[in-house]
Amino acid sequence: MSTTTVRRAGAREWAGLAVLSLPTVLLGLDVTVLYLALPSLAEDLQPSGTQELWIMDAYGFLIAGFLITMGTLGDRIGRRRLLMIGAAAFGAVSVLAAYSDSAETLIAARAALGIAGATLMPSTLALISNMFADQRQRSLAIGVWATSFALGMALGPVVGGVMLNHFWWGSAFLLAVPVAIVLLVAAPLLIPEYRAPRTGRFDLLSVALSLTAILPVVYAVKRFAKDGLDTPTIAAALTGTAFAVLFVRRQARLTSPLLDVRLFTDRTFSAALSVLLIGLVGVGGSMLLITQQLQFVEGLPPVEAGLWMGPPALMMFLAAIGAPLVARRVPPGTVVAATLTLSMTGYVLLTQVGASGGIPLLVTGFGLVYLGLGAIAALGTDLVVGAAPPEKAGSASAMSETVQELGLALGVAVLGSLATAVYRTRIAGDIPAGTPSDVAGTAGDSLAGAASSAQQMPPGWLDHAKEAATSGLNTAMLVAAACTLVLALLSAVVLRHVGTIGGDEPETDEATPPEPATTQA
C-alpha cells in the first residue's frame, strides 16, 4: 500500500508568506488609522452622521461586493499578477483619499479603495493555500497571515497617531504607498505565479448579478439606520434578495461559475463561514465605538489613543498564533467556543464603561473581544480554505474574505447605527431652546458633531453629549454580548465534527504533490 505524501514548505515559501502578509498589514493600518483620523477629519470636512458611517464602511461594502469576482479573475489571469495590479491601484487611490477636499470625494475614494482591495485579499489567501500543502503548516501560515491584520492595527495607532500629531489627517492614507511599493518589488522574487485551468468564459452577467445583489442590501441597511423601516428600505432589501436568488441559481447552472455554490454543501465550510460573519459584526462595531470613546469622551489625543489600542491588537496577535497550535490537540470547535466566551465577557465589561475614567475597563474588555477575533480569524479561515479542493481555493478564499469584510462593515453599520440612535434619543431633550437650527442639527446628529459645535453651546453641555454617547456604546455592547454568547454555543455544536488539525494528516516528506492547476515560477 502506497503512502500519500505532500510537499513541506521551505525557506522561500515562508519568506513569500511575509510578502503575502503585507496587504493584510496594509488593511489593518488603513482601518485603525482611519478611526483615529475621524475627529480631525470631521472637523475639516464636516460630514453628517450618515456620511461618517459611509466614510468608515464604504470600503468594506465594496470590497465584499467585488471579492468573488476578483477571486475568479485572479484564477484566470494569475493570482500574483492580480495581487500586483491591486497593490499599485491601492497605493494610487490612497493618494487621492489623502487629498480629498469634501466628504463626498473621500467616500468615493474609499469606495475605489474597496475595489482595489478586493484584488488583494483573495489572491493572498489562495496563494498561501497553494504554497503550503501540509495541513499543519498551512494552518500555522494562515494564523501568521491573520495576525498581520493585528500587527497592522497595533502599528497603525502608534505610527498614525504620530503622523496625525504632526501632519494633517490625509497623511494617514499615505501610509499605504510605501507598503504597496515593497510588495511590488518583492512579490516577483518570492511568490510563484499560479493560474487555475478554466474551460468556460468569464461570465459578466454573474458579475452584474453579484453587485446588484449586495449593493441594494447595503443601501437598505444605510437607509434603515437613517430613516427607519420605510418603503424604499423594504424595496431595496427585497430587490437585493431577489438578485441574490438569481445569482445563486445562475451559478448552479454554469460550468465555470464565479462562485461554486456546491462548496456550501460541505458543513465545515458553511459553519466556519457563519462563525466568521457573525463574529466580525461585533468586532467591527466595537472598534468604531471604542476609538470614538477614547478620543471624543475621554479626550485623548491621537497618539495616546493609539497606544491604548495597541494591547488589544496584541491580544489578537497571540490568539491567532496560539489557536492553530492548541487546535492540534483540542478540536477547533472547542477552541473557538472557548475564545468566543472570553469575547462575550469582554463585551459585558464594555457595557459597564462610564463617561469618565473608563479607559482601563475599555482596554481590558476590548482585549478580551480581540482574543476571540484572533482565534476565529485563524481557525475559521483555515477551516474554510481546507474544506475546499485545491482547484477551488480561489472561490473559498474569496468567500472567507467576503464574509469577514461584510461582517466588519455590517458591524459598523448596525452597531454604529444603534449607538447613534441611542445618542440622538438621549441628547434630543438636552439641546437648549433657542439654539440655531444648523448648530442643533449638527450637535444632535453625532458625538463628532457635538464636539465640533461645543463652542456654540452652553458650558457643560458637552458632558451631556458624552454621557449620551456612552449610553449608546453600552447598549450596542450589550447586544454584541448576547449575540456572541449564542455564537459560542452554536460553534461548539456546528463544529463538533471537526477533528484536531493534522490529526488525520497523511505522512509528509519533501515530495511535490500532484497539482491540478498551472503553477509558474
Characteristic terms for this protein:
two-stranded antiparallel sheet, 1% strand, disordered C terminus, 16 helices, mainly alpha, 521 residues, single chain, 2 strands
How would you explain this protein's 3D organization?
By secondary structure, the protein is an all-alpha fold. It is 76% helix and 1% strand. The protein has 16 helices and two strands. The longest helix is centred in the first third of the chain and has 35 residues.
Layout of secondary structure:
Elements: H1 11-45, H2 49-77, H3 79-98, H4 103-131, H5 135-166, H6 176-190, E1 193-195, H7 204-227, H8 231-253, H9 267-297, H10 302-326, H11 332-350, H12 359-387, H13 393-427, H14 437-445, H15 447-452, H16 461-494, E2 518-520
Antiparallel strand pairs: 1-2
Helix pairs in contact: 1-4, 1-5, 1-6, 1-9, 2-3, 2-4, 2-7, 2-13, 3-4, 3-6, 4-5, 4-13, 5-10, 5-12, 7-8, 7-13, 9-12, 9-13, 9-16, 10-12, 11-12, 11-16, 12-13, 13-16
N-to-C series of helices and strands: HHHHHHEHHHHHHHHHHE
Taken from the alpha-carbon principal axes, the silhouette is globular
Report, as a whole number of angstroms, the end-to-end distance: 33 Å
Radius of gyration: 23 Å
According to DSSP, the number of beta strands is: 2
User: Helix fraction?
Assistant: over 70%
Beta-strand percentage range: under 5%
Please summarize the sheet with the most strands.
Answer: 2 strands, antiparallel
Low-confidence stretches: 505-521
Q: Taking strands numbered 1, 2, ... along the chain, how are they ordered across the largest sheet?
A: 1-2
Global mean pLDDT: 80
Secondary-structure-derived class: mainly alpha
Number of helices: 16
